[in-house]
Write a structure and sequence with these properties.
By secondary structure, the protein is of the alpha+beta class. The chain has 3 helices and 9 strands, in the order E-E-H-E-E-H-E-H-E-E-E-E. The strands form 2 sheets. A 5-stranded antiparallel sheet has the order 3-4-2-5-8. Strands 1, 6, 7 and 9 form a 4-stranded antiparallel sheet that branches. Strand 3 and strand 4 form a beta hairpin.
Length: 219
């Protein structure tokens, strides 16, 4: 018997409906005074955290980014003028896939009397994708095995074992997202009658493997 090798590549993907909504909030505050920019921002952040609690969200939003910068007029001219300061803060929160609760939160921001309206981005996710990856990897290996068996049968070879296995870069597909801007004059943006129709896509997770099989000739 002669030893030889077969190298095949298998891939697979699995999908699942999202079970989590990631809500990203961005606030920007401008004021002539440093303290004014900070105070206005802090007030808006406190109101946002209170709104989430009011809507039954246990885990309050967490700060992801914060910055404060000088705000100049004619910044790149020969005579720039300092106008004040701009403070920005980005919050993130995760809630269960509950569209009624999401509507309460969005309507709360829409109806807020705060002068600082957030920019909002919604991402629909699966909280734990590890099981999805494991299932995709299992299916990818089985696909590679079936391909190797088909090739071996056509060439009168017998598969005797695995020589090497390489897991390539796993891939994933995020679900749909939506961005909303709440300006001071658009307080009815997401009132109940005009709540956006959101139907998020499934979340996809996949894997790709390359396997070299040791074979022997049958003749």
């Amino acid at each position: 018997m002669t030893n030889t090798e077969i190298t095949v590549r298998g891939n697979a993907s699995v999908s699942k409906k999202p079970d989590t909504i990631r809500i990203s909030l961005s606030f920007d505050s401008k004021d002539e005074a440093y303290s004014g920019a900070i105070d206005n921002l802090n007030t808006a952040i406190s109101e946002a955290i209170a709104l989430f609690k009011q809507c039954g969200v246990i885990d309050e939003p967490q700060t992801d980014r914060f910055s404060i910068n000088e705000w100049w007029d004619n910044e790149y001219s020969d005579a720039p003028e300092l106008q004040g300061y701009e403070a920005s803060q980005h919050l993130e929160a995760r809630i269960d896939m509950n569209m009624d609760r999401l509507q309460l939160i969005l309507v709360g921001f829409s109806n807020s009397t705060s002068s600082l309206k957030p920019r909002v981005r919604l991402n629909f996710e699966v909280r734990d994708t590890n099981k999805m990856l494991q299932e995709a990897r299992k299916q990818a290996i089985n696909a590679a095995k079936r391909s190797a068996e088909d090739i071996a049968a056509q060439l009168d070879l017998k598969i005797v074992g695995i020589k090497t296995i390489e897991y390539n870069q796993p891939f994933s597909g995020t679900s749909s997202s939506i961005a909303l801007n709440f300006s001071e004059g658009d307080t009815d943006l997401v009132a109940e009658a005009s709540m956006p129709m959101i139907s998020p896509k499934d979340v996809m997770r996949g894997d790709d493997v390359t396997i070299t099989w040791e074979c022997q000739t049958l003749s």
